[in-house]
Design a protein that fits this description.
This protein is α/β, with parallel strands linked by helices. The protein has 4 domains: about 5-220 and about 285-405, Glycosidases (TIM Barrel); about 230-275, no CATH class; about 430-555, Rossmann fold (3-Layer(aba) Sandwich); about 570-623, Immunoglobulin-like, CATH 2.60.40. The structure holds zinc ion.
Length: about 625
């Protein structure tokens, strides 16, 4: 099995659905001589995790070759600062028959990693077709996802399958009892569902490498809520929300006689906007419940270990992923989230990972970033920058991303020193219009992608606003989205009225209206003292926002100055940290020398092409 194929497929989806320039190349074809092995030793910062994925097995027959490659490459990885090696742990390669656990294959990998001074990250996969043991796959306890588009069954276990939870618990208990005492594990990554293991519903074709275990299967982007357990779960959820059918009929504009008559449905069959939003709330909520079950179970058996929930995609509503909720769920058990959607473009990577970084800090979950597949040699530093500038604890590369090209390896060795635990200082947030994305699809990320070249900011989704997220920021930018829940507008207005919050909006963009179609509250919001409205053309809006923020007294002086500097420079990206440090990423193909004054001190750094520069200026004045 080639794990990178998984990434390429996801990359293909991202490419089609959202991203545009996402097609990275995975380095040159010729392996380098290994500069790290030749003696250069770098280290990443204390408390960070640099994990390399690759060297996986799909059967016992792969093991010998994998061990030989690992023996050859581990010293070089260690010299490049790698702290851990990650492998897929497939349920079917461990529980060979019901109740019979055999860890001998993975023991040899984990022990070899450990003996050469690198920790192990097991990626535990239960649910995706390629990891399901034969004895379960064909048993009456197997319940697979069924799509609403065709009513056809997939080969992936449904998260509504009531029999699956017991198997996850048993597996985790046995796995932890075996590996915890060995002291080999750096963190545990949970592969809970979907085609590959991410906390999203099936989203790619079932004809790739994941079909090698049980054959080709029905799979595509869509809504996978057609099995009988899913339908019953939806009915229970509706009954719990509405209590009596008359209330549901009033909100949905329907005439259902009983909850038990309601089936799951596609958007085209939704009787009303509210009905569709309910369907999506339940669909997403089911994914969150499933993630919460896994995280709690893992925490029970791994009381001290870092645990990451694996997630991916771009927040498309059909994926069922609410990255804010996934962070909240992870934080509730002192866990973290790994997001696996990066490519080679820094603004794309920023737009795809910033929700996790913002929500992780709000709720208290740690987080790590992984590429969906190939990463160009030049982008090795950009990925390091995004992780450290976002406050990530963990950074993942596939082996080929760094070690299959001397240029990539060189770039990594230069960048490694910058990867350490940092606390970004971010006083400005961009409103993430969740409800609008649910109704209209994921078309929002182009805004943060473009805005990032002006300045650094976080995301605030409607769920994060509900959970008090506005308190962390001084200004909120509205840039896109038309439909919003009324409670979100109420909270934003209250924040402006009573907590000095500043909202910035474009007066020439369409107003935000409630799901019920009312724009009164938005107009009231723009009339409060805390609102700044640009009356210029929409094309100049981001420039207006940057200029406004650079002069906004409510922001601290260092934030204002960095926004003023960042918005003047194209393809230079700035991040400010709580300790006063500034990091700059240069995405120009040549070195840039630039003189500027920050907090009264003149600097004239040369920032290397596709490289990183750090100030280490301590803040002279903070407000
Ligand atoms: Zn289908």
């Amino acid at each position: 099995m080639n794990v990178r194929e998984r990434g390429f497929l996801i990359t293909a989806i991202l490419f089609l659905v959202i991203v545009g320039e996402q097609r990275g190349v995975s380095g040159a074809e010729t392996p380098s001589e290994g500069k790290a092995a030749a003696g250069r030793i770098v280290k990443v910062g204390e408390g960070t995790q640099l994990t390399i994925g690759d060297f996986d097995i799909s059967s016992a027959a792969d093991l010998q070759g994998v061990l030989e490659r690992l023996k050859r490459e581990l010293p070089r990885m260690k010299a490049a600062g790698v702290t851990s090696h990650e492998t897929y742990v497939r349920w079917n390669l461990v529980e060979t028959s019901l109740g019979k656990f055999d860890f001998s294959l993975y023991d040899q990998i984990a022990e070899l990693d450990h003996s050469l001074g690198i920790k192990w990250v097991p990626f535990i996969i239960i649910g995706p077709a390629y990891a399901t043991p034969d004895w379960f796959y064909s048993s009456k306890h197997s319940v697979k996802y069924v799509c609403l588009e065709h009513g056809e069954e997939s080969a992936i276990e449904s998260l509504w399958n009531p029999h699956l939870r017991g198997h996850v618990s048993r597996f985790m208990k046995e796995f932890a009892a075996h590996y915890e005492p060995m002291g080999v594990i750096e963190s545990v990554l949970l592969g809970i569902t979907g085609n590959y293991g991410e906390a999203i519903y099936p989203a790619t074709s079932g004809e790739d490498w994941t079909s090698r275990t049980h054959g080709k299967y029905h799979s595509h982007p869509g809504y996978w809520a057609g099995d009988q357990h899913a339908v019953r779960s939806f009915q229970r959820w509706l009954k719990n929300k509405y209590r009596d059918i008359a209330s549901l009929n009033r909100d949905w504009k329907t005439n259902h006689r009983d909850f038990s008559r309601i089936k799951t449905f596609l958007r085209k069959d939704a009787p009303s906007t509210r009905a569709w939003l309910d369907m999506l709330d339940w669909y997403r909520g089911s994914m969150n419940d499933w993630a919460a079950f896994w995280m709690k179970t893992a925490r029970k058996y791994f009381p001290q270990t870092n645990i990451y929930l694996c997630t991916g995609g771009d927040g498309n509503p059909m994926h069922g992923s609410d990255f804010g909720e996934q962070c909240r769920v992870a934080a509730s058990v002192y866990g973290g989230v790994r997001i696996t959607n990066e490519g080679s473009s820094y603004p794309d990577n920023f737009s795809l990972t910033r929700w996790i970084a913002s929500a992780g800090r709000l709720y208290g979950a740690y987080y790590g970033f992984e590429p969906a597949g190939g990463v160009s040699p030049a982008a090795v530093a950009a990925r390091c920058y995004n992780a450290t500038a976002s406050g990530a604890r963990q950074l993942h590369y596939y082996f080929g991303n760094i070690f299959m090209s001397s240029q990539a390896e060189d770039n990594w060795l230069k960048s490694a020193q910058f990867f350490r635990r940092r606390e970004p200082k971010v006083e400005v947030a961009l409103f993430y219009p969740q409800t609008d994305i649910e109704l209209g699809g994921q078309d929002f990320l182009r805004y943060p992608r473009a805005l990032r070249d002006f300045f650094d900011f976080d995301y605030l989704s409607e769920g994060m606003i509900r959970d008090g997220g506005l308190k962390r920021y001084k200004a909120l930018i509205i840039a896109g989205g038309h439909t919003v829940e009324i409670t979100t507008l109420r909270r934003i207005r209250a924040w402006c009225l009573w907590e000095g919050g500043i909202v910035i909006a474009s007066g020439t963009s369409a107003p935000l209206v409630t799901v019920e179609g009312d724009d009164t509250l938005y107009r009231l919001l723009l009339d409060t003292d805390g609102a700044i409205v640009d009356q210029g053309p929409r094309e100049g809006y981001f420039r207006f926002v940057a200029k406004t923020l650079a002069e906004l007294p409510v922001l601290s002086r260092d934030t204002r100055e960095v926004i003023a500097l960042d918005s003047k420079t194209d393809n230079l990206y700035w991040t400010l940290f709580e300790d006063g440090e500034i990091l700059i990423l240069n995405q120009n193909p040549k070195d840039v020398t630039w003189g500027f004054t920050f907090l009264g001190k003149y600097m004239r750094p040369t920032i290397p092409a596709y490289g990183i520069w750090s100030s280490k200026v301590s803040a002279i004045s903070r407000q």
